[in-house]
Amino acid sequence: MTTKAIRGTFFDFTDDPWKHVGDEESSARFVSDGLLVIDDGIIVAFGDFDEVGPLYPDVSTTHIEHRIITPGFIDGHIHFPQTRVLGAFGLQLLPWLQKWVFPEEARYADREYARDGAVRFFDNILASGTTTVQAFTSTAPVCTEEFFEEATRRNMRVISGLTGIDQNAPDYFADTPESFYSNSTALIEKYHNVGRNLYAVTPRFAFGSSPEQMQKCEQLKAEHPDVWVNTHISENPHEIRGVLALHPECDDYLGVYEKYNLVGPKFSGGHAVWLSDDEFKRIHDSDASVTFCPHSNLFLGSGLFRLGKATDPDMRVRMSFGTDMGGGNRFGMLAVLDGAYKVGMINNTVLDGSIDPSRMNAAESERNKLSAFRAFYSITLGGAEGLYIDDKVGSFDIGKEADFVALDWKAGPPGSDWHAELIADGGDPVTVDDAANMLFGVMIVGDERAVAETWVMGEKAYQRADAVASTFARHFDPAL
Amino acid sequence: MTTKAIRGTFFDFTDDPWKHVGDEESSARFVSDGLLVIDDGIIVAFGDFDEVGPLYPDVSTTHIEHRIITPGFIDGHIHFPQTRVLGAFGLQLLPWLQKWVFPEEARYADREYARDGAVRFFDNILASGTTTVQAFTSTAPVCTEEFFEEATRRNMRVISGLTGIDQNAPDYFADTPESFYSNSTALIEKYHNVGRNLYAVTPRFAFGSSPEQMQKCEQLKAEHPDVWVNTHISENPHEIRGVLALHPECDDYLGVYEKYNLVGPKFSGGHAVWLSDDEFKRIHDSDASVTFCPHSNLFLGSGLFRLGKATDPDMRVRMSFGTDMGGGNRFGMLAVLDGAYKVGMINNTVLDGSIDPSRMNAAESERNKLSAFRAFYSITLGGAEGLYIDDKVGSFDIGKEADFVALDWKAGPPGSDWHAELIADGGDPVTVDDAANMLFGVMIVGDERAVAETWVMGEKAYQRADAVASTFARHFDPAL
Predict the structure, then answer these.
(1) Which residues of B touch A342 (CB under 8 A)?
(2) Contact status of A281 with chain B (Cβ, < 8 Å)
(3) Which candidate, A290, B140, B147, B297, has a CA 20 to 30 Å from the CA of A383?
């Protein structure tokens, strides 16, 4: 057993800040000088350095100074084989898939291409502070294999699965219900719960899976009840009409997944932009989950996720946030928080009653405001709860896996350094509010340049290059 | 006379790409191996290296390789004294001004603070590729003076003016009609058309100026007909109601500025989110201009600018794009293009008829799509036309001032390097479409890290630090 410790300033969550309106700091845990003790990648002690330190007098300790250490970020919805085609121009969901996505994803049937893509994919997410993803792959087993193989080499907690589509896709890309079933079965047996890998039965979306393929999903979940289920739901109005035309017996989009007994714990529906109140209620009642992907929803013109509705205390749904890279045009969760904040605020143009007083909803409007508490909760503990992995990751609780990020709140784009000096007189955070203000700056004024180090299972997996690590300097030199 | 030349790959515009639907490249000028010849900061020759080079056999030439050189970016709407408080949490326009903005702007009455702020402000915009701004200042003449003084030291083409507000502001910040008039007069005489400085009579917004202050604006413009007029218009529904309550004799927000004879050439109305069709028409008819500030409109929850409406060929309005830093949370125009693309796409969720077929408008929907051509036109030549400075800057036409940016399309956040290799086999752009695809990647997958060099009047004013200049490297090292 190898024991080590990290000393530094820690910030994580013990509860949902949406439950603490007006008192959000009570959901957070801020330890200005703390010690995190790790045995074989697992947290065995955590607390004030003065209290925990004496219990481990000889432990090898890394002191990470002038950083805020948070749990590693969790991306609930990302497409591994779209790594290269993120940010493709000009189309909404369905034609975008045909023109840009399927041709690129098809290349991941080639093992060498898939392996190269996997190295780049994990490089990119670690450099963005992300330590856990729930990822879509493609129809080719090779793509899913290389995803899990690279995740295994990095020892990362991931959820993924062969991504089935047997209709509304080009022939060269579509699979069949039979191939999807047999390949999924083999992949579950090879990867599920092996190391830190978790398997999700993954019908791409109801528009892409025939009733026969949906039946295979139901069968797989019945045969392997421990696996996850990951898919898309109600992303785009055209898509929704297409789904209901294909499944006329269902009243709404969620009804399709319900029909095949997929909706329940460990089910994630990505996007959920156009869910009715009744669908939100049924997701709540079944303890299923949705994923909010703001950049994608904006970039593809899908619509505005109702954050304040999803967090209604009477029917709070489990929720993770996701990049949805490549429908989303950024790799990291800090960028997602910038987009999520804006979606919440734009929702409030309506909900504050300033346009149509009859639509005023002050409580929902308040819940749309993505404070730093709500934001960082959503990409750590909240995301873990959304993905049913909060027993494993998402906070610094004893027994969890030691995935974390060291954030440098002064590093970022032009303007971020002076902005950061507004807080705590330019020094380290003294209070939980200092830390929250710095983290708000990181997500709104900053970007992934704030990610100084990313650690996985107690091992450093990414370190920002030194040169980039320096805060933004004044480049103007009249002598140039 | 000092003559010099820049050799490289150039991309600028000779026309409005919105006039060339389906054939946008005909609005652009792409010179894969070009020469830009500069005399005392002014462009005296431009074209293919093979044609122009022999005419200047002995000219001192800087060869900028593996970059796309565009005209310097033009920011039509930015608040100089908000440099430090960009990205402040949680409020819409009117309470945001009271809580965050007025206290910070008041500090710019202190000359030392204003001077430090000005150095930082210009450092930040140059590092973002911006060479021209139309800027708001504060009520203190010192703030405007220090802005123009620093712009003069940098020799930059700027538009600015004392920013008056005599109501709906705290006592410590408000000015009076009389002080606004006398201070504006002195500043016009001292700075307007001195060096590259241009003066704008700047009532902050109709909600903040009494009828008496508006009359002073009218008087200033009548006494100095050559000056610009810069203000805000129709940003937020609450604000609009406030304006109409203060000016009950006006039918709409634009009507207030019309009443005081301010609307015409050289008039810029920032935001213009909630303009009626009739107001757009009157702005078109009067040859006035609006500024699109997408990040601010999202960040403050103001609303969605109707890009496709503003570009209606039957009533096309002059238009610049702006950061609106600090209501916008990013300093640079490349970030603005990312936001502008998303606003256009989200507008189309309605205009494509997918929600309500009666609202379908295919032509307006098409105009909402911000291609790389439309995007880079809007922050160069289009912005210059919007600000009535297209005789001075915005393209590489002979006689214009040599402000330009060298863009490195492979540098940016995680993911941008591999994405860039999709185009031109990873090499330099060969065709105008290659260049446009690279520029789309810069604005959507990249950010201001693509700005390798910024030149002002033929002199290098910013160079990216070498370390940052390297393209994103794979940081994952199992040995770490």
Answers:
(1) 295, 298-299
(2) no
(3) B297
- Could you write out the DSSP letters of every residue in B132-191? EEEEE--SSHHHHHHHHHHHHHHT--EEEE-EE--SSS-TTT---HHHHHHHHHHHHHHH
pLDDT band at residue B88 under the 50/70/90 scheme: confident
Ordered DSSP codes for B41-89: TEEEEEEEHHHHGGGSTT-EEEEEEEEEEEEPEEEEEEEGGGTTSTT--
The pLDDT of residue A478 is 38
Helix (H, G, I), strand (E, B) or coil at A252: coil
Q: Percent of chain B beyond pLDDT 90?
A: 88
Domain with CATH 3.20.20.140 in chain A: 73-386
Query: How many DSSP H helices and E strands does chain A contain?
Result: 19, 16
Q: Which residues make Cβ contacts (< 8 Å) with residue A398, sequence separation at least 6?
A: A43, A44, A45, A46
Domain boundaries B73-386, CATH class: alpha beta
* Three-class secondary structure of residue A132 per DSSP: strand
Closest CB to B445: pick one of A87, A303, A332. A87
Cβ–Cβ gap A476/B461 under 8 Å: yes
Q: Do A413 and B330 touch (CB under 8 A)?
A: yes
Q: What is the pLDDT of residue A466?
A: 57
What is the rounded distance in angstroms from the CA atom of residue A351 to the CA atom of residue A27? 26
Q: Is B211 exposed, middle or buried (0-12, 13-18, 19+ CB in 10 A)?
A: middle
Angle at A70 between CA A68 and CA A75, to 5 degrees: 135
- Which architecture characterizes domain B3-71+394-469 according to CATH? Roll (2.30)
Give the residue range(s) of CATH 2.30.40.10 domains in chain B: 3-71+394-469
Report the alpha-carbon angle A112-A110-A324, nearest 5: 95
Strand, helix or coil for residue A160: strand
Longest dimension (CA), chain B: 73
* Confidence category of residue A471, pLDDT binned at 50, 70, 90: very low
Note the CATH architecture for domain A3-72+394-469: Roll (2.30)
User: Range(s) for CATH 2.30.40.10 in chain A?
Assistant: 3-72+394-469
Distance CA B414, CA B423 (A): 17
- Does the pLDDT value for residue B6 go beyond 50? yes
Burial of A399 (0-12, 13-18, 19+ CB in 10 A): exposed
**B331 vs A87: CB contact, 8 Å cut-off?**
no
Measured from the Cβ of residue B348, the count of other Cβ atoms closer than 10 Å reads 24
Residue of B nearest to A125 (CA): B414
pLDDT of residue B154: 97
